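Comment thread on ticket #2218

A.B. wrote:
> Attaching the input chain for the structure job we discussed in standup.
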Amino acid sequence: MMCQKCNTDIYILDDHGQGCYVCTECGLVASGLFIADEAFFDKSIESMSHTEVFENNTKLLKFKNSFDLIFDKLGLHDCIKNYAQDLYVMFEKDHTFKGRNINLIICAFIYIAGKANNYAINAHIFGKEYEKDVMQNVKFIENTLKIKTEVKEPEKTFTDKDIEAFICKYITLIPEANKKMKFDIIKLIPLTEFVMRKKEVTAIALIIYYKKDKRLLKTLSQGSGISELAIKSALRDIDELKVKS
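C.D. wrote:
> Ran it. Output below, let me know if you need it in another format.
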């Protein structure tokens, strides 16, 4: 249960004396059970009662309890949880879920929140038998709130298998070379996306760039048969692109 003002649950206290949940930080009543001064007829229990239930607060409490049960089983990131709950609160201010299954609604909010945070979330995680119903609720929420779950295309990282192969080939010319060094140099390949040199030359330049040892220039030049001038040019290109980035 969250205090809407403090936006945290760490100060929430179950006040049995007052019959409600209260935030001890700001004093805001956080849940919907209150003690009325006069008894009234409670239709839900068909008897007289002093406990008055505010609909919006009990809805939020019911949603929170059901939400936690479902979300904890999925093992998703907390940023999805927070976003989904915020969407629910926003929806409840002006709209209603009357006639809809609360569990499917919860799954729909989680799906929307996942897509909004660029997570590769699939409705299958809620169970294949519920996929169609979940997506219907997703469409209902999106249309009601006029939101879209457009997923941004992730930026593609430049890779080049030929450059990688040349790195693996020529790194053997360095006595202290090991697997970690090789993989670290391969990770630098994105730096060469706009280097307009032969891939073999680029690979050798990356090895020297990683080692920060210009003495390797002669060793790798002789071992590969590539001129030192060409390797120096590729090194200069990498340095310039690194500065720009």
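A.B. wrote:
> Thanks. Noting for the ticket: Residues 32-45, 49-55 have pLDDT under 50 and may be disordered.
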